[in-house]
Design a protein that fits this description.
The protein is mainly beta and 353 residues long. Helix content is 6%, strand content 50%. The longest helix is centred in the N-terminal third of the chain and has 22 residues, at 2-23. The relative contact order is 0.07.
């Protein structure tokens, strides 16, 4: 018993030291639910610890907001500006999240869910956790995705902004790269509808393969592949074609040949069998999806190979039906079906005979 208490005490000490190293000394600590708006100014550090939950608006101006594991933010508006610093190791749920002004830094190691998210004016975003937003815009700022980022509607990077994708990026509707912006495609990004580039798409010289899987239209009036390989796979065209190009396509650009090493970051194989039911399985490609676990409305269905390459994408309608039919024209093999119902990702391993 004494040994267990000693180990517990050591764990608490090291955990506190770890959090303090990330957050610095806490000027104010919140460990209960607080409804009042919070303003964090220069020289101050607000720590939301386990059990803490801020439901009022938050503005970080020059100070540091540190959300520790078990801490939460559930509010309407969230803004970080004027060299503010936000470190999230917990959970953020909000209507709008704005990261703005020079030297402002948002580091996400936890979970973020928002309706609108934007960064601008030389701000910085580093995502090491999970972000799910309806809309995202990056203008004159820098964003890096190292893990999992889902945009249920549209994504845009513009006006000298830079977005670096090193992980799983799923854009369920349209992609825009415009006005001298740069998108660095170190991994394959999924685009559920249309893809437009009038700026710069750069690639990866490190040996892995990055680019885009595009479901809808694809137009390029900018530059693709000025630095490293970029793979473009428009599922609506034969390999090698974009819908339109009057820009520059570098010789390092390939078409539907990328065996992506990081697309599988977004596929949690452990969820197979638990959250989604499909029959018959094995099948000849005609399958029925049991819809009881899915939210009503428009669903996005995607098929991945075992290597993580997306080979199929389609929108399905779920209007109180018990099952949803899918007809797949696939070669015999093992695949992963992913269903996004707007609130959760569901997975199922399927076998085609």
């Amino acid at each position: 018993m004494k040994m267990k208490k000693l180990l517990l005490a050591i764990t608490i000490i090291f955990t506190n030291q770890f959090l303090q190293a990330q957050c610095g000394a806490c000027t104010t600590t919140i460990n209960t639910t607080v409804t009042a708006p919070q303003i964090v100014t220069t020289g101050n550090t607000l720590c939301i610890v386990a059990g803490g939950n801020v439901t009022g608006d938050i503005y970080v101006s020059g100070g540091t907001l540190c959300i520790q594991p078990g801490g939460q933010v559930n509010n309407i508006n969230f803004a970080v500006g004027a060299a503010g610093n936000l470190i999230n190791n917990g959970t953020i749920t909000c209507d709008s999240l704005l990261i703005a002004e020079p030297n402002t830094i948002f580091t996400n190691n936890g979970s973020v869910s928002a309706i609108k998210m934007a960064s601008w004016n030389q701000a910085n975003i580093i995502n090491n956790g999970t972000i799910t937003v309806d809309l995202f815009g990056d203008s004159l700022a820098n964003a890096t995705n190292n893990n999992s980022w889902t945009i249920t509607l549209d994504f845009g990077v513009a006006y000298n902004g830079t977005f670096v994708n090193n992980g799983y990026l799923n854009i369920m509707r349209d992609f825009f790269c415009t006005n001298n912006a740069t998108f660095d495609a170190n991994c394959v990004s999924i685009v559920g509808r249309d893809w437009y580039n009038s700026a710069n798409i750069t690639g990866n010289n490190a040996g892995s393969c990055g680019g885009f899987d595009i479901t809808g239209l694809s137009y390029n009036t900018g530059t693709i592949g000025a630095n490293g390989q970029v793979d473009i796979c428009d599922l609506g065209n034969p390999p090698g074609n974009l819908d339109g190009n009057i820009g520059t396509i570098n010789g390092s650009v390939t078409y539907c040949t990328c065996n992506n090493n990081c697309a599988v970051v977004g596929i949690d194989y452990l969820k197979d069998e638990k959250y989604l039911s499909v029959y018959p399985n094995p099948s000849n490609g005609n399958i029925n999806i049991v819809a009881s676990a899915l939210s009503y409305g428009t669903l996005q269905a995607e098929i991945y190979t075992l290597s993580g390459q997306r080979i199929y994408s389609s929108l399905l309608e779920h209007n109180n039906s018990e099952t949803i039919e899918m007809k797949l024209n696939l070669n015999a093999g093992i695949y992963f079906l992913q269903i996004n119902d707007g609130s959760q990702l569901h997975y199922k391993k399927i076998v085609i005979e």
